[in-house]
Amino acid sequence: MLALTGRPMILPWTAAPPATPRWDKRTWIGDAEEGSRYSPIEKTRSSVIAKANGSHPSVPPVPYYTARLSRSEFAYTFHVTTAGPKFVRLHFFPSDYLNFSRADSLFSVEAAGFTLLRNFSASLLADYTRSPSFSKEFCLTVGDDRILNITFTPTPGDSDAYAFVNGIEVVSMPERLYYSTSIDSKEGIKFAGQATPYSVGTTDALEMVKRLNVGGNSIDSADDTGMYRTWELDDDYVTSSYIGVLPVNRTIQLSYSDQVPSYTAPDSVYTTARTMGTNKTINLSYKLAWSIEVDTEFYYLVRLHFCEFQREINKPTDRVFEIFIDSQLVENRADVISWSGKGMPVYRDYAVYMHDGQKKRSNLSVAVGALPDGYTLYSDGILNGLEIFKISNPDGNLAGLNPDPVPVPDNQPVPPPASKASSNHSKTAKIAIVAGKASGFTLLSLLAFFLYRRRNRAKDSTSSDGTSWWGPVSFATTKSTKIQASSLPSDRCRHFSLAEIRAATNDFNEVFVVGVGGFGNVYKGYVDGGATQVAIKRLNAGSQQGLHEFLTEIEMLSELRHLHLVSLIGFCNDAGEMILLYDYMARGTLRDHLYNSDNPPPPLEAAARDLHRRCARAALLPRRR
Predict the structure, then answer these.
(1) Residues 321-372: pLDDT tens digits?
(2) What is the pLDDT of residue 485?
(3) 468 CB-contact burial (10 Å; exposed 0-12 / middle 13-18 / buried 19+)
(4) Any idea of the CA torsion for 426, 432, 435, 441, to the nearest 10 degrees?
(5) What is residue 28's predicted lDDT score, i.e. its pLDDT?
(6) What is the pLDDT of residue 462?
(7) Per-residue exposure over 319-349, b if at least 16 CB sit within 10 Å of its own CB, e if not
(8) How many Cβ atoms from other residues are within 10 Å of residue 620's Cβ?
(9) So what's the pLDDT on residue 621?
(10) Could you write out the three-class secondary structure of 426-466?
(11) How far is it, in rounded angstroms, from Cα 24 to Cα 61?
């Protein structure tokens, strides 16, 4: 494969590597094989090859179960067949190897004059993302000498620090895939919040942060367009109040162009999508949004993929919408048909700078918003795919800071992930979510709401389109109220500080609003270092409800626990705030599954029987007046 395709791949191995999975079409070459062209260059010849002391069911043996490790610098030299841009992927499986402790890996990586990683702790990143193995993907340009050096250097000053790597890929890419593209060369890349366009050239290095097949299935490396990219589901990254609908058209014949060649993305990216739906009233009340965690103090390239394949959309102005990057308007009249045509893939690139002097990481949001009558026939928005790349700083640095250690209870191992994500945002953030059973759970949550109303005779709150969002109860007050800690059941539910709440919602960023009612807003947020996804209901000072309802809801829901009921996780009453945290319902409301969706209706018979049985017993519950 090396000689024929110019896509060399290498992994440390003491002998011939075992058979790779059938779906993996890559050829892996061992760097320790006799006569290997890819043996590392070392000053001290102190590196070793070792097998991981442990394994994990979600981690494939190739390339992850063996590594090259050293407490001294070592480097690889690749003589590639052509100059130009290349993918460089570094694969890591943090584990104990021989006398190398998992926690001691601390090193830097440099290549093509760029710092890819600095003082990097693979174990901290694996714990933070809850991914036992992962890869880091970069885009670099190899010069006319066609030589690429990749150097691993343990962090100096720590005698136990070592560098390691499990696998390396160097894969050629088309010259204009991400650099100086035909689409962007005429106008440049729109820079969010700035009037001057931003340009990305071959003198820049890129790090892939996230690559999503929006509305479709995940795509393995073998099903990419020959460059072994992987595309994730977007479900875990949707942050809007409605999750939209998922149209699909597997029969359309896609028409690629010189500007958007067929290698740009797999066909399945352009034949699936996420749209806002057909309800114009609902669509005008929210923005369909995604959020990706990124390092701060860097510029980012955001690529949005589009293709109109629905039968209703045939001509310009049929579907015109707005596009927002980091809450900033970048397109006020996005019209995919005008950009390309029906069944013709197209993409748009944007640049954004992520600044936050107080945080290592922040959330980069992407959103589409509907336009009213007069601008478009259908008040709707669409997105087919999303790619986000970090752009190297002027000093050639791509390295961010290590995440903070994840607190682990005594004698409790870090829970394994659900998938082998290759990024800094875990797909297992849904561990407390009622995914897959949303319909039955929602019905029973409505039961809790019904019973609570019987006890308190409180007026329920609704979202802006008249739909009840969060069942347990509305709460608010007309003035700040200091609540004594002794009056709250902190022994039965957790108290969160206001700082934790602000961190969970990116300081109450509107992108995270998933419900609006008389009580105020409900936000989607992340706590416990991003490990747990929650719904955060915040008091609106203009509401007619206050302290009594707030206390009563905490008291009741602290006692009420059931598999099919949304659980209260905790509360915050700092600085006069009244905030409640619940389990997050990942798949939206029952209404989302019954209307404006291509999904089959949920099975409700069993849930209805349970609802009937519980309602029949409701009279047994004491009322509070």
Answers:
(1) 999 999 999 999 999 999 999 999 999 999 999 998 788 999 999 999 999 9
(2) 39
(3) middle
(4) -160
(5) 87
(6) 34
(7) bbbbbbbbbeebbeebbbbebbbbbbbbbbb
(8) 6
(9) 42
(10) CHHHHCCCCCCCHHHHHHHHHHHHHHHHHHHCCCCCCCCCC
(11) 12
**Buried b vs exposed e over 257-276: b needs ≥16 C-beta within 10 Å?**
eebbeeebbbbbbbbbbbbb
CB half-sphere exposure, 111, CA atoms < 13 A: 33
The rounded Cα 326 to chain-centroid distance in angstroms is 14
188 φ, ψ (degrees, to nearest 5): 80, 175
Token pair for 407: 């607190």
Task: Using only the alpha carbons of the chain, give its radius of gyration.
Answer: 26
Q: Does residue 363 come out as left (phi exceeding 0), alpha (psi in the -120 to 50 range) or beta?
A: beta
Query: What's the pLDDT score for residue 297?
Result: 95
DSSP H or E stretch at residue 337: helix 336-339
Burial of 311 (0-12, 13-18, 19+ CB in 10 A): exposed
Could you tell me the strand order of the sheet in which 107-111 lies?
41-42, 74-79, 147-154, 107-111, 114-120
**Under DSSP, is residue 104 helix (H, G, I), strand (E, B) or coil?**
helix
Helix, strand and coil in the chain, % to nearest 5? 20, 30, 50
pLDDT of residue 433: 34
The angle subtended at Cα 462 by Cα 234 and Cα 507, nearest 5°, is: 55
Look-up: residue for tokens 């931003």?
A: 198
Low-confidence ranges of the chain (pLDDT < 50): 1-8, 13-16, 19, 22, 410-444, 446-487, 616-625
Cα 277 to Cα 380: distance, rounded to the nearest angstrom = 6
Reported as type and span, the H/E element at residue 232 is: strand 232-233
- Return the pLDDT at 468: 26
> Which residues are 571's β-sheet partners?
495, 580
- 300-223-38 Cα angle (round to 5): 75
Query: Read out DSSP for 507-535?
Result: TT-GGGEEEEETTEEEEEEEETTTTEEEE
* Phi, psi angle pair for 185, to nearest 5°: -70, -25
Q: Which residues are CB-neighbours of 589 under 8 A, at least 6 positions away?
A: 438, 442, 467, 469
d(CA 282, CA 379): 10
Residue 30, phi then psi, degrees to nearest 5: -75, 135
Q: Give the pLDDT confidence score for residue 10 in this predicted structure.
A: 55
Cα gap 599→597, rounded to integer Å: 5
Q: What is the mean pLDDT of the chain?
A: 80
- Residue 182's SS3 state is helix
Tokens at 429, concatenated:
């953030």
Secondary structure element (H or E) that encloses residue 270, with its range? helix 267-270
Cα separation values, 162 from 47, 131, 152, Å: 10, 21, 9
Name 438's Cβ contacts closer than 8 Å, sequence gap at least 6: 585, 586, 587, 588, 589, 590, 593, 602
User: What whole-number distance in Å separates Cα of residue 565 and Cα of residue 225?
Assistant: 44
d(CA 222, CA 208): 18
